[in-house]
Amino acid sequence: MAAGVHARRGFVLAAVAGGAESVLAWVRRMTPVGRQVALLVCSLAGVILGAALIARWAVGLAVIADSVLGVWLALYRDDGQRMPQVDGVVSHEAVLARFRAAP
Fold it and tell me: What's the whole-number average pLDDT of the chain?
């Protein structure tokens, strides 16, 4: 089975068997990326189920809006770090000289 299936099964078993304390312990053991994926899945499920309470067409709009927002956030996010810069421009002659000097 895939790792995601085991993670979901672990969450469900923890929720049913031990209550909130075991769910919190399970979440603390997750990696930061795993937590983000779990939050994303819960968010998407909430959006889709909330839209399903309205009407079938609302589910389509919710999925489209969630996809557009996800793409926008992925493309326009700013992590506060500067853009990668080239440390030094290597000229064509320098590359050829290094190639000629190689054994």
Answer: 78
Would you call 19 exposed, middle or buried from its count of C-beta atoms within 10 A (0-12, 13-18, 19+)? exposed
Residue 40 lies in a domain: yes
Say whether pTM exceeds 0.70.
Answer: no
The label of the residue with tokens 């190689």 reads: 102
Say how many domains are in the chain. 2
Taking alpha carbons only, the member of 49, 43, 52 closest to residue 70 is: 43
26 close to 11: Cβ distance less than 8 angstroms: yes
97 band by pLDDT with thresholds 50, 70 and 90: very high
Q: Is residue 97 part of a domain?
A: no
Residues with Cβ within 8 Å of residue 14, at least 6 apart in sequence? 22, 23, 25, 26
* Residue 45 lies in domain: 31-77
